[in-house]
């Protein structure tokens, strides 16, 4: 997530959250190969390029990729910026296709980007009226499709699983009763009515519902799990991983992955089937979670919930699994 920055030529229009902390965690140097797993407006990529690194950037949003194609580093010989219009869970296969088997660092900025949130036509936010879309890739079923066709129980399950919404059944019942829903305003109004929203409340009750449906539509948590497993495979010994998440569900997945991969607990994930008691740790140097400073939060309120977790890859062989 990000805030407006300079509009100088080929400078990204946004500055990503925890930029200085991510740079400190990855320590890019000239000649390093870094993966920006969530390109967005390119804030991390710009910083890595400025440090002299070569960058492989992933994004499933065609708008982000189209903007990145204007960057001169992609036209250098050899290119210092390679854009991959793919999910970051596919990084193992995508990198292999261009002859890259190992990288020096990987940065992930999880969740919806500021650019997506700030474009009403993308339908991610209820702050401005737009179609009920929420698709990062701009392909496949929309949030409206889900709200208008899913069973009431399935909607309730999504709201509870992906937003820990205690009133999930009441909201799901209201959504089904109000069908068809076409806009972000339609969905927000249904949730507010179901929960008895009053103007001036500190948090709009529709926030959790929008989060849950967006995560479901984009398969975000499964993508994160698969991307962490992919990072384990492509990071060289000594390579560094930095993951910025924005809510407890994401952070819980990252924290558990690093705990297991560093030998803190036996593996319980299908993505890491061969790690157990006595297995050599795959990551080391797992420090405490890092949060945005008060200065950064004051400049960008969206940074308030940001959490950075970082670790260094050991020389232990990666788990054997089928990779995307």
Looking at the structure, what is the overall shape?
globular
**Helical coverage, percent range:** 25-40%
- Write the CATH homologous superfamily of the largest domain: Vaccinia Virus protein VP39
Low-pLDDT runs: 1-12
Number of structurally distinct domains:
2
Could you explain the architecture of this structure?
This protein is an alpha/beta fold and 324 residues long. It folds into two domains: 207 residues, 3-Layer(aba) Sandwich (Rossmann fold), CATH 3.40.50.150; 96 residues, Orthogonal Bundle (DNA polymerase, domain 1), CATH 1.10.150. Strands 3, 4, 5, 6, 7, 8, 9 and 10 form an eight-stranded mixed β-sheet that branches. Strands 1-2 form a two-stranded antiparallel ribbon. α8 packs across α9. It starts with a strand and ends in an 11-residue tail after the last strand. 48% of the residues are buried.
């Amino acid at each position: 997530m990000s805030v407006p920055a300079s509009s100088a030529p080929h400078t990204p229009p946004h500055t990503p959250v925890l930029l200085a902390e991510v740079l400190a965690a990855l320590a890019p140097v000239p000649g390093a190969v870094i993966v920006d797993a969530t390109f967005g407006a390119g804030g991390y990529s710009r910083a890595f390029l400025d440090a002299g690194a070569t960058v492989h950037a992933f994004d499933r949003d065609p708008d982000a990729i189209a903007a990145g194609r204007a960057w001169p580093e992609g036209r250098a010989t050899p290119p210092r910026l390679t854009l991959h219009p793919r999910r970051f869970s596919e990084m193992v296969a995508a990198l292999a296709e261009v002859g890259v088997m190992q990288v020096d660092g990987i940065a992930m900025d999880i969740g919806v980007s500021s650019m997506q949130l700030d474009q009403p036509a993308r339908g991610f936010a209820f702050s401005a009226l737009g179609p009920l879309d929420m698709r990062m890739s701009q392909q496949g079923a929309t949030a409206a499709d889900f709200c208008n066709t899913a069973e009431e129980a399935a909607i309730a399950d999504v709201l509870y699983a992906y937003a820990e919404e205690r009133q999930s059944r009441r909201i799901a019942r209201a959504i089904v009763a109000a069908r068809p829903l076409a806009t972000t305003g339609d969905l927000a109004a249904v949730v507010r009515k179901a929960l008895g929203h009053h103007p001036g409340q500190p948090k709009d009750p529709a926030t959790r519902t929008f989060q849950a449906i967006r995560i479901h539509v984009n398969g975000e948590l499964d993508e994160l799990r698969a991307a962490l497993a992919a990072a384990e495979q492509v990071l060289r010994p000594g390579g560094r991983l930095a993951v910025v998440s924005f809510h407890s569900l994401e952070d819980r997945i990252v924290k558990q992955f690093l705990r297991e991969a560093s030998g803190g607990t036996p593996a319980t994930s299908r993505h890491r089937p061969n790690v157990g008691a006595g297995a050599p740790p795959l990551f080391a140097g797992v420090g405490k979670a890092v949060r945005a400073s008060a200065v950064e939060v004051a400049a960008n309120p969206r940074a308030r919930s940001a959490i950075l977790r970082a670790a260094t890859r050991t020389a232990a062989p990666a788990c054997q699994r089928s990779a995307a």
